[in-house]
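Ticket #4471: structure output looks truncated?

Reporter: J.K.
Steps to reproduce: submitted the chain below (221 residues) through the standard prediction queue, then opened the result file.
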Amino acid sequence: MTKPTKSEEEYLERIYRFEESGKKPVKTNDLAQDLGVSPASVTEMISGPLSVKGLVKYTPYKGVTLTEKGKKVASATMRKHRLAERLLVDVVGVNWGESHEEACKLEHALSEDVVEKLDNALGNPASCPHGNIIPDPKGIVPPDNSEPLSDYEPPSEVEVIRISNERTDLLRQLCSLGIFPGVKLKVIQKSPLGGPLLVDLGKCQIAVGKDIAKLIRVKPA
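Returned output as attached by the reporter:
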């Protein structure tokens, strides 16, 4: 198989993230919004190069899923990305909220040999700074059994496990609120009709919109 281009790897990585969060098949409109491109551009990529190379299965009007080949490429890219984030945060000192964007620049340049040396040098971390599991060299990712914060009712006490979407604007917002993996929250109030959740962080109480609460994965504390 011809090595995927940087752009193709980016598409595979985004599809992988959606599938990791339980969305399968992935809707082309969701993928377009996440990538910041037009739905037509997404359709062209997934029905063209990615399908021709056997990396995805695309069904019009239903969505796209990764094939086994696609999962292998995507998990390898994700492994590079999440190890790069650990390097940037733990060693270089890059801010937690900025590490995702910087890791996107590094992931495509790392060879497999360098990735394994980096993994060993970092002590074989299980997850990235945002709590998302780092695939092993074979692409295996154990389940974390976390659930969206939005699923919990008051007065649930939970611990943040991971942030499933690593958009820089979202990470900056959560960073400013003090919401990181390991932080414990208490759901005090849940507004009806998809309104925000009121959560207690111990030192303060904040309102978290439902769309953001869906991206904060937690377990009972």
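Triage note (M.O.): checked the attachment and the full token line is present. The radius of gyration is 18 Å.
Status: closed, working as intended.
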